[in-house]
Design brief:
This protein folds into two domains: 130 residues, Tetrapyrrole methylase, N-terminal domain (Cobalt-precorrin-4 Transmethylase, domain 1); 98 residues, 2-Layer Sandwich (Methyltransferase, Cobalt-precorrin-4 Transmethylase, Domain 2), CATH 3.30.950. It is α/β, with parallel strands linked by helices. Helix 6 crosses helix 7. The structure holds S-adenosylmethionine. S-adenosylmethionine (SAM) binds next to helix 5 and strand 10.
């Protein structure tokens, strides 16, 4: 009987290919099958970041999202389409694993921080050996590049998606010493307004495509845009305290 392959969820960091760990590079270079998520209209950011490490003969499984922002995430149609998509993606990977081939799934940042890989993990972990390789997160790449120390001593760090409704966003950010707001996208204006009402707009730093070649770092209060691209987040550092 063929021995089943192993599934690797591999964090490849926030964008700068030099921020891929040695372990990630080794496992990607050894994998006969490499899978990655991509928007329908895009090349696949994760693949581009890890490109130099792929085996020349690696089989590639491109997992194309049916939707990204086209229809509301709460809608039944979106939820149903995404469940079917993840079921089918998991079965494509399962077929490779059952045939004895290891599969490396490339994950932007860290696989277990808002990563699509988790939906594959949920579906496959009882059936196959799964190994998760941590990655440098988008937020740590961004605060390093922005030169924004975040937490000291007993400061707390809150991480929230901008997709929360404004009241919950205000409640969470209102309690936070330091915060990171992910998935800014079309919620940029609403987020700006919440931070202004909390009196923290002037502390906030916007980072777009942090650590990538086209990176942009701007005080949020000075950002003249209605929407932000997918790879953007807002940093709210804790107020500096002694020593
Ligand atoms: C689906 S989450 C994936 C997060 C990823 N697993 C991580 O560990 O950072 C995508 C969100 O992460 C943030 N993000 C990830 N990498 C980023 C980068 N290089 N620059 C700015 N934001 C980034 C953005 O807010 C983006 O909308």
């Amino acid at each position: 009987m063929t021995r089943a392959g192993a599934l690797y969820g591999i964090g490849i960091g926030p964008g700068d290919p030099e921020l891929i760990t040695l372990k990630a590079a080794r496992l990607i270079g050894a994998a006969p099958v490499v899978a990655y998520f991509a928007r329908r209209d895009a090349k696949g950011n994760a693949r581009a970041i890890a490109e130099a490490h792929l085996r020349a003969d690696a089989e590639e499984l491109r997992l194309e999202y049916p939707y990204t922002t086209e229809i509301p995430r709460e809608s039944e149609a979106y939820i149903r389409a995404m469940q079917t998509f993840y079921d089918m993606a998991a079965e494509r990977i399962a077929a490779q694993l059952s045939a004895g081939r290891d599969v490396a799934v490339l994950c932007e940042g860290d696989p277990f921080l808002y990563g699509s890989f988790m939906y594959l993990f949920d579906r496959l972990r009882g059936r196959f050996a799964v190994d998760v390789v941590p990655g440098v997160t988008g937020m740590s790449g961004c605060w390093s590049r922005a030169g924004t120390p975040m937490t000291r001593d007993i400061d707390t760090l809150t991480v929230v998606p901008a997709t929360l409704d404004s009241q919950r966003l205000a409640d969470m950010l209102g309690m936070a010493d330091a915060a990171v707001v992910m998935k800014v996208g079309r919620h940029l204006g609403r987020l700006r307004e919440v931070l202004r009402r909390l009196g923290r707009l002037d502390d906030a730093v916007y980072v777009e495509r942090g650590t990538m070649a086209c990176e942009r770092v701007v005080p949020l209060a000075e950002l003249d845009a209605a929407e932000a691209p997918y790879f953007s987040l807002v940093l709210l550092p804790a107020v500096r305290r002694a020593p």
